[in-house]
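Box S1 | Example of a co-folding query
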Amino acid sequence: MPGLYIHIPFCEKKCMYCDFFSTETFRQYDSFLSALHTEIYLRARLLADTPAFDSVFFGGGTPSLLGDVQLGGILEALHGRFDITQDAEITVECNPGTVDVDSLRGYRDAGVNRLSFGVQSFHSDDLLFLGRTHTVEEAEAGILMAQDAGIPNVNLDLMFSLPGQTPERWHYNLERARALGTTHLSCYSLTVEKDTPLERMVACGMVIMPPEESDAALFELTMQTLDAWGYCRYEVSNYALPGYECRHNLTYWRHGEYIGFGPSAYSTFHNRRWWNVRDVERYVEALVAGTLPEAGEEELTPETQRGEYIFLRLRSEGIDLAEFRRRFSTDLLADNRAFIDHCISDGLLYSDGNVLRLTPGGVLVCDEICVELR
Ligand code: SF4
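Box S1 (continued) | Returned holo structure for iron/sulfur cluster
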């Protein structure tokens, strides 16, 4: 089933590595919310007869800067315009330090049943380096408050490959996450994105990033450790206890459809992709004028869909070869026989005859494999 995504573009302060669209200066939440409600209304009117949706994801930015009444109001608007299933997964991304047990209870009463905390590290000096606004104590308290508020399904974002990070320090982060009863973990390596303060710090030698081998070693440590603790890796960077896989993200990784709202949000629906302006003021202006704030669109050709399907499925559950034949009327195995055989003998891919999957070694070169598979 398709999902709904709402981008809340506000942050208390930009983190030095982040290239997501968010602003720390725009504070007119009321005008943003009113524009968002208009977008939901206009989009629903344009897309009459949409199917049922089984996930709603509030991402950002920092959605937890919104109170429960504001968030509940958005959910009410979505329920009023779209068919959202009774058991839909409803996730809110939170920054520790921006929530308390009462606001989380309010989220729960509004229908939220999953939280995702941007913790990144349980070491104070890491948080300082990354420019995060929360403390280790706030991160730990946030997770416990979520459980107290009746939302035990909690993801933590953690970051490895920080300069100078030892395997022991990274392992400690995983241990803390497990000890706190986390059901889901997203473990990403710190990457240097364009036009970020981190890029400038690396360029002038203020920060020295770890070498690729150390990134690969920490990735393998993550896989082995979490596997031993019963967390299943169901996408390159995502691990869940059985039954706690993120339904919304599975929709993305299964090349499913989704409709996004808010500045910079992307949508993929009925073989078309469109995206909104990356600017809160222009977003609000467009909607005040009664127009949708789209910045661009593209038709998803069969070739584009095929390439995206390979990329997304190989990174997650693997490519179901029969489904691939049905969807694209071509035989992936036959078309790429020599390359696939080569990857299998090199220990990068494996197949049970029905599904083609990456081995742990293949995960490290996933992008290179996807480029070759056509
Ligand atoms: S809180 Fe999240 S979205 Fe905001 S700047 Fe930091 S990493 Fe980016």
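Residues 11, 14-15, 18, 20, 22, 60-62, 95, 118 surround iron/sulfur cluster (CB under 6 Å). The chain has a mean pLDDT of 95.
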